Amino acid sequence: MKQVFLFTILLCGLLFTTGCNKFLEEQSQNEIRPSTIDDLRGLMSAEGYPYQVTLDQVTEFMTDNLQCNGGQGQANYTKAVAKGRAPFTWSKDVYEDLLLPDGFSNKTFVNSWETIYGQISGCNVVLDYIDKVSGSEADKNNLRGQALAMRAYYYFLLVNMYGKPYNMPGLDPANSPGVPLRLRLLVTDSLYPRNSVAEVYHQVEADLKTGTALMKAYPQNNGIYKMSPLAAYAMLSRMYLYQEKWEQSITYADSAIALKPGLTQLSGYLKTGGYYVYNTVGTPYSGTYQNRIYDPGLSTEIIWKYMPHASMVGSGTTTDEVLRPVLSPTYSAIYKPVYTVSNELLQMYDARPQSDTAVYLGDLRLRTYFRANGIIAAPIIYYFFGGSYGPGGLGIRVSEMYLNRAEARIQLAIKTGNTALLQPALDDLNTLRSARYDSRKAYEPVVMTNVQQALGFCRDERRKEFPFEGHRWFDLRRYGMPSITHFYEEDPGTGQTFTLAQGDNRYTLPIPKAALERNGLLSQNP
Given CB 3.0 to 4.6 Å as the disulfide criterion, which of 40, 168, 240, 263 pairs with 249? Predict the structure, then answer.
């Protein structure tokens, strides 16, 4: 019965993404509707939260955090390289290229536009029905707050994928096309044009603030897997940072940190978590390789967590029909994985090499956020071992609040000339770094007096802290869309260099052609 109910509701909800001209002339007498708050809770968990979906499978390939090592003369490696070509080379038809018959095979969540709007539809079902079901007002209003906060999260993703950056020089966000705002689940023939970037941000802000007020007024212990006032504060801090509203970003980072200030001490769970490290006497220690920063049993800084669909998880072989930063053959003492973490990123970490038997390891993020090939005789190749594995995940962490607050304070110091703001910003950065460095040596705080230098340092820390959690592409956009160069090679000697120029239009993703064909009111990005 529940499956029939979900199917009926979601058919209505997906009207916007499927583009049907007309769903039903009249409602069926046999239509199953939600009748209790528990029905809506189940729907919210199944279709409103991003559990078992993948929201974005392309932007990680488009950043400067990844490099291509080529097919190296091996047919199966060459095939694996080709799967990532479209996003890695910034194809203007990236979604269509990934859907070609001889291209990427697992197409379930390739189309982020359709996937994210499907999640928005789930939230809208909850919001449309919540006053029509039985249940206490407290339960209804808390769930209403969750649905609003999640809808804001999704629209924030969409507008930063398919709209120009809010802070783009010379851009008026009020006149720049964003994405269509679909705020009700009405079965109509209406098509929706693109709202402006400013309108989408305004809706994100309104949903987050209303959702926060409701969840605070009607509190429930929903844990880290549901939206909460804390998570909404974190999203508001992020949103205002993107808008360059520095004071507001600081205010909401303050609110989040006041509720949850603790950071995970990586030294405390290296061996417990099972990483390739060295113990206090220099003896190699190896075990399972997993990014445990989203493991609630080990990490103290999770604000909100979700698990992507299993399509983001695989064995690491060339037969994986998975688009992720580990499109690589299994370990080899001869051949490199076809896509690995860029050397540029790896060299940013102040860490001892994987093969070094020194007791002090430096910045532990290199060992806990990435995986090495594990073959002592071979050159160590680091590549991303995603948070979607095992007890990992994705979401929002406390560390972002320290970084948001530090960046906003430095930007205010630059804007106002008030250099007194620099020290509290450095305090935030040192608080984060001290939790990331090997504690077998006393952490030495960073000291600097130049605000521009401090801004660059803060941005580098952000890059090192969130290498593959969905931040880098959005950060590059708001940093002025710098030029990026990728070297791509399938067969040895055939390599090409592709460049994304500074300010390139491809920093804004193309709307999938299927969406344009369904909705004549949509306009394509340049």
Answer: 240
